[in-house]
Amino acid sequence: QGIVSLQQINKYYGNFHALKDISLEIAQGEVVAILGPSGSGKSTLIRCINYLEPYEQGDIYVDRIRVQPGPELIEVRKDVGMVFQSFNLFPNMTVLENITLGPIRVRGMSREQAEDRAKELLEKVGIAEQMHKYPGALSGGQQQRVGIARALANEPRVLLFDEPTSALDPEMVGEVLDVIKTLADTGVTMLLVTHEMGFARHVADRIIFMEAGQVVEEGAPELIFSKP
Ligand code: ADP
Ligand code: ADP
């Protein structure tokens, strides 16, 4: 079983069948890009992995823990970091506070420990100078780099990205993709919903194409992109 395992997942919004019998095994360290038209279920799929969306049928496991409501969900969420399209930062907390919140609450770290770790992460994503500012004072690209640092703060084994560059002005896309590429090279397991084809092609180990709630194509980038 992979570090992320989806077994015959079905998900409905009312009568609408959003995910149709999806099975996927994601190996440790694998970088998987999920592509497909708007409304095909990409975001729903990755949101089921940390149970931000409930699913009705099938099983999802992260690191062999079943993703379901209850005490195990805390363990799953420690292991799974998420980066959102619209950053989802707390506007009334500084950058540093946004990042230390999780480790203090979820990991039970001391404030001092959490701040040391946060500063390291902010160095890594290149925004250490901004740490005492509020998110609203930052550019979109900077905010998303905070979002990535926050997702890393709990030392997750899996990172989920839901169109991390779609809300950015074009000139900021590159700086965020560079950070994601650096992370991919460090061996963290990643699932990335994106419209950045070039990035997917060069960075992903595997491409998954979705259409109308189904996986319609999957394989190594060189196979997928060489098809006529
Ligand atoms: P994608 O990420 O590929 O654009 P989504 O996973 O966001 O697709 O959505 C898949 C389908 O499910 C779409 O048709 C969308 O309208 C529908 N959908 C998403 N969220 C909800 C919701 N909360 N309630 C009802 N329908 C939803
Ligand atoms: P948009 O979604 O309009 O392209 P961004 O994603 O670039 O905006 O920015 C997200 C938020 O950050 C917006 O509320 C925007 O007003 C703010 N913002 C963007 N760039 C700056 C900047 N250079 N200085 C201050 N605030 C900014």
From TrEMBL:
UniProt superkingdom: Bacteria
Membrane topology: Peripheral membrane protein
One cellular-component annotation, GO: plasma membrane
Domain annotation ABC transporter: ranges: 4-228
Keywords in alphabetical order: Amino-acid transport, ATP-binding, Nucleotide-binding, Transport
Record field: transmembrane: none
GO molecular function, one term: ATP hydrolysis activity
Alphabetical list of InterPro entries matching this protein: AAA+_ATPase, ABC_ATPase_HisP-typ, ABC_transporter-like_ATP-bd, ABC_transporter-like_CS, MetN_ABC_transporter-like, P-loop_NTPase
Subcellular location: Cell inner membrane
Main location: membrane
CDD domains in the cross-refs: ABC_HisP_GlnQ
Family from the record: Belongs to the ABC transporter superfamily.
PANTHER family associated with the record: AMINO ACID IMPORT ATP-BINDING PROTEIN (PTHR43166), PHOSPHONATES IMPORT ATP-BINDING PROTEIN PHNC (PTHR43166:SF4)
Protein name listed in UniProt: ABC transporter
Organism the protein comes from: Halomonas huangheensis
Organism lineage: Bacteria, Pseudomonadati, Pseudomonadota, Gammaproteobacteria, Oceanospirillales
